[in-house]
Amino acid sequence: MTSVCQLVPSSGVQTALPMDQQRRAERAVAVARVFVAVGALPAISFSPVSSEPHSQISYSILVGYAAIAFMVAVLLEVTPKHWKVSALAMHVVDVSVAGAVTFLTNGTNSPFFVLFLFTLLAAAYRWGFAETLATACAAVSLLVVEAVMPVVMPDLLQGQFEPERLIVRSTYVVLAGVLIGYLAQSEKQFRGEATAIAAILSRADARAGLKPTMATVFDSLLQLFGAQRAVLVVRENPSDQVFLWEANRSDAGVAAAIRFAHLEPSNLETYMFAPEAAAWHAVRRRVSRGDRCDIVAVDRRGSRLPADPCSFPPAFLAAIQPFDQLMSVSIELGTEWTGRLFLVNPVIAADRYSGLAFAQRVVRQIAPAVQNIYLLRRLRASASAIERGRIARELHDGVIQTVTGVEIQVAALALRIANQFPTVEEELSRLHTTLRQEGARLRDFMQQMRPLELDADKLVNVRRHSGARNVFVRLSTVNGDCCLSIDDDGRGFPFTGRLSQADLDASRKGPMVINERVRQIGGALTVESDPGRGARLEIAVPLSHYANHR
Fold it and tell me: Across all residues in the chain, what is the average pLDDT?
């Protein structure tokens, strides 16, 4: 079966549709052919041209055409996989029948001129704009032949050459071909985009995790745009964290090789530079004075922006590496995420603006899905961290406290009987050492069970102190609240200023374990930090909440 094609909007090339879609398209055209052929038979019987000398030949042609139409429709329905029908051959038959019938029924004056409309619709449904326009040109050629044949062969054919009617009919055919082909091409582009986006989203599996999902998404994008490399730089605004994802194009059937890294917030300017368009495409031109970039850009609505001159920062060129073409698409997900996707050496059609608009639509559809997988991963990590924290607190408040109490009692007993029973005192000392070691191991185990999202420099237990030389602790009641304040002159926290509990939650800064414990008892935590000079923690717990809890 001749391939029915679809347009790949990003590159402008055509690829064959799957066989099942080709068969479905041919079945639809075959059913329409049956209706056209059957409808033409009574029309030729009752039309004014039925008395013409060649009407019987026209009727015979239509009978044979109807028989072929029925046979093709039945075979495509019954044995679609075993009987291949050439779409191009059937299209030639359709055009030939339309030309023969109109030629034998008064040529350009024939009422069966509408048979050409079916050929235009079939070409548009099977293929696209170019094929539909070619069919219109073929129909016009047949109309020209039909118009001049009575002049060339006056003995066999009757009629006169009517150039006005020929021009009108030919204009109708060309205009119909252009209009039908354009509408079909637009619909195929829309369907192709939807199919491409759906294929990418279908490969994103939340159960596989974030990194495998990013690998499959990058692999799909690289194949869709024919790019050699993809770089994604994203900033999580609430936490001010910057992530970099990078993937290189892989061989067929092999997932893209992906790399992930955390970037310092100061490095964001390396990638988020002018032009500040929603999407742009740069082509490097080599001239006598050096390289220059020809850039086209669009805004968020897809409108074209003026081509302003632009130079890339050296740090960006070093990170992206040499390129001939470069595409960038901005990413914005509310107030939470901002970033850019870079595609190195993509294959873009002559209309670069259409390629940018398509890339924008793809990113808008894919980015929320990837963000949902990331948030799901964060939710799972948070749930795991909460459970690990609960177990660690139970160890601290239960087993560790009990072991510590027994250790103290054994040490006190050893001191009391040291003079009277030295042998027993030695055994108690060894027992005391064992209890102390087991307590240390339990504390280490509790340390390992801390929430995974805590950085290594947080203060998570008493052993990791602030390096302070002086600490001032004050406990008081203020307006019905139990207030605890702790001031020290140590290292402080890695931020400057005063943050409320809401600010600490949003930025994920400060002592997270203390913050969690304060929240569990209905309190509020405020942290004031001056790095290198010290910190102040203020904890306020309503006494009414404590009384209700008791």
Answer: 79
